[in-house]
Automatic annotation (TrEMBL):
The keyword Transmembrane applies. This is Nucleoside transporter/FeoB GTPase Gate domain-containing protein. Pfam families: Gate. The chain crosses the membrane at residues 20-40, 60-82, 89-110, 116-138, 171-192, 222-241, 253-276, 282-300. InterPro entries: Gate_dom.
Amino acid sequence: MLAESFKRGIMVGLKTTWTLGKIIFPVTVIVAILQHTAVLPWVIKLITPLMNVIGLSGDAAIPIVLGNFLNLYAGIGAILTLDLTVKEVFIIAVMLSFSHNMLIESSVAIKVGVKLWIVVAVRLGLAILSAFVINLVWHGGSEIAKYGIIPAKEDELAGWASILLDAFQKAGLGILQLAMIVIPLMVVIQFLKDLNWLAVFSKWMSPITRALGMKENASTTLAAGLLFGLAFGAGVMIQAVQEDGVSKKDVTLAFIFLVACHAVVEDTLLFVPLGIPVLPLLLIRLSVAILLTLIVAFIWKRTELNKRKETAYEHTS
């Protein structure tokens, strides 16, 4: 039984890696190439005038754009090269917590079955709104931020051959990193399923998922996203949708929760070297995720009730 579970887990992991790799590889290559063109500088120049509205200097556009086009590491690396106040760094950190790696993570959302406009609107909306509110209510943090680490500066690439080679290397390493996480994860999930431990876990998580307006079979999806993030947790999410019968409503609600609060351990620890208060950052993400999911679940439920009433009225009349 254990050997069969291991084999099934490996096959599911490889299939999931292939499914996600077809998205991640080309996106990574394209973005890596765009870094060496006029596109990213143009986008940065375009949004610079908006920075003052949310309490940021024009330079803050650099980590925000890089974080959204690439990932948190790129955004944090850019922050470390700039002289910013603690308040500015905190605002950028909150924004990037909600909105980062948009191209890949939005593509993953589509693969799971969530509409693209929902993911983009929620992530960008939360990022901008949170920055505006923090700038409005927090009057401290005017001292210059002191960073705990300085990243190694990458050498400039000369010529398109070097740029293309670097792009393909980054994409290949991205797929390798994905496989190293997804395949063991899917093996573990398969063991948990075959030993019926996943059912116990779902039951344990059921009060939380029910409170958020979802059925208990969405608990695995929530846990995967919270611990591993949207991209790496997508393997479990895709399998849950295909095999566990997670409804379109529940997977959408789960994703709305997770776009606000995912990879809570890794994403939070990444910001520690920036010298900002990370506990408020975590609490903001968690509270916003809970509140937003409850609001959407309530609206969805009311809409379904109204539709049922209209249908019942049409049948009786």
